[in-house]
Amino acid sequence: MRLKGKKVLALLEEDFEDLELWYPILRLQEEGAKVDLVAQEANKTYYGKYGVPAQAAFDFAAIQPEDYDGLLVPGGWAPDKLRRYPEVISLVKHFDQHHKIIGQICHAGWVLISAKILNGVKVTSTPGIKDDMTNAGATWIDESVVVDGHIISSQRPPDLPPYVKAFADGLAK
């Protein structure tokens, strides 16, 4: 269990991409990491695009980012909502400033764009937000997974196995 003792924060909001939330959580738990779901409201059940539920353990205000080693931002339509919360932007900036692992997949790049942390960073995302990523100063690369320091990005659900492996490898260092 190479991730025993590691703590990961997963951001949650309505209309998350079901696989992009649950696949990483389950894989990281299998490797020994503790994953906490955080949202605007604690103990509320949020639903993914395909109806899979996820319950937030904490609200954004209750989180101490220094207690966590990594941050997962799932895709779907949730990122468009998540990036509107000042607390989410603060969390992302904290993880970036402390060079802690940040994983983003598909549309999750919108959250990193709003946090203004992508200037000069190599990333990928769903091709649908490529222009948004490059307009934020990122170098967009058409690959399934891109690792640039502590920022790990991926394009879509079929890329989940290599994406989560790269995320876990980053946490294990």
Automatic annotation (TrEMBL):
User: Where does the sequence pass through the membrane?
Assistant: none
The record's section on Pfam families has: DJ-1_PfpI (PF01965)
Cite the DJ-1/PfpI domain residue spans from the record: 6-166
Query: Does this entry carry the keyword Disulfide bond?
Result: no
Could you state one GO biological process linked to this protein? Answer: proteolysis
Q: Which PROSITE patterns match?
A: PEPTIDASE_C56_PFPI
User: Does Ribosomal protein count among this protein's keywords?
Assistant: no
GO MF terms on file?
A: peptidase activity
Top-rank taxon: Bacteria
Q: Which InterPro entries match?
A: C56_PfpI-like, Class_I_gatase-like, DJ-1/PfpI
Q: What protein family does this chain belong to?
A: Belongs to the peptidase C56 family.
Name of the protein in question: Protease I
